Amino acid sequence: MRGHPLHHFFRPEALPTAFCPGCGNGLVAGAILRALKRANVDFQKTVFVAGIGCAAWIPSPHFRADSLHVAHGRAIPTALGVKLRRPELTVIVVGGDGDLAGIGGNHLLHAARRNADLLVVMVNNFVYAMTGGQVGPTTPKNLPTPTTPYGNPEYPMDVARVVAAAGANYVARWTTAHLGELEKALTKALSKEGFRFVEVVSQCPTRVGGRLAMAPGEALRWLRARARPVGKAGPEEMEVGEFADQDRPGLLKTLRGEKNA
């Protein structure tokens, strides 16, 4: 890692990571760090907050930055407390779909409604991966899991559309097969105020790929093949792109009675 353009942001002593071989979390970590560099964000004034789950291990112990590892589903309210107390800091939440949309779903909705000045990066691997691969709010219909061995009978939540409808300033969804687009979305999100939400659909070779007999490379091709631009996806396809891009005053300005120019 030493000599790499991102080595100042990454702790070499954290390697090798605890992620499963073929996991998409390493790809997401790289995209976050490259976006921070492109956006000229001061890493020494950045705080990462994560809850419980595989994706929550992305910032800590890997990033050379201040971070908080908190209770399951409670990353967003903790991050908001940091931002309200230290408004000069860049505060970024990183977590999985189970942590942010399942256990912490109510916090996600109300942070979007308040337009809280946070960037939330949600890695969606369709299941509660760290705890065994149980069915979650984003599990595709008919996907078998340990708690739905004959296939998930329910329809999944479209988290990006829900967060956009709740009032977030910026919402985008990409996959680990769209790293260039993901990096651009993260860079753009870092340049905005208010609530920004970037969903990353990722392969999970252990909990999902194993059940589908799908190797990581095949999973990436599957994600790429299913992706369609927002508004152009069919029933078995997935929308990617921007779902919201507005400039409402963030929560900090709202509390101060300020308006955008």
Q: Kindly estimate the percentage of residues that lie in beta strands according to DSSP.
A: 15-25%
End-to-end Cα distance: 43 Å
Q: Quick one: how many beta strands?
A: 10
Average predicted local confidence, pLDDT: 95
- Note poorly predicted spans: none
From the alpha carbons, calculate the radius of gyration and give it in angstroms.
17 Å
Outline:
This protein has 261 residues and is α/β, with parallel strands linked by helices. It contains nine helices and ten strands. The radius of gyration is 17 Å and the shape is globular.
Summarize the structure in words:
α1 crosses α6, α3 packs across α4 and α4 packs parallel to α5. This protein has nine helices and ten strands. The protein has a domain of 150 residues. With 261 residues, the protein is of the alpha/beta class. It has an eight-stranded mixed sheet with strand order 2-1-3-4-8-7-10-9, sandwiched between helices. The protein has a two-stranded antiparallel ribbon with strand order 5-6. It is globular, with a radius of gyration of 17 Å.
List key phrases describing it.
261 residues; alpha/beta; eight-stranded mixed beta sheet; two-stranded antiparallel ribbon; 32% helix
Topology:
Layout: H1 25-38, E1 46-50, E2 66-69, H2 75-85, E3 90-96, H3 97-103, H4 105-114, E4 119-124, E5 127-128, E6 134-135, H5 159-166, E7 170-175, H6 179-190, E8 196-201, H7 209-212, H8 216-226, E9 227-229, E10 238-245, H9 251-256
Parallel strand pairs: 1-2, 1-3, 3-4, 4-8, 7-8, 9-10
Antiparallel strand pairs: 5-6, 7-10
Helix pairs in contact: 1-6, 3-4, 4-5
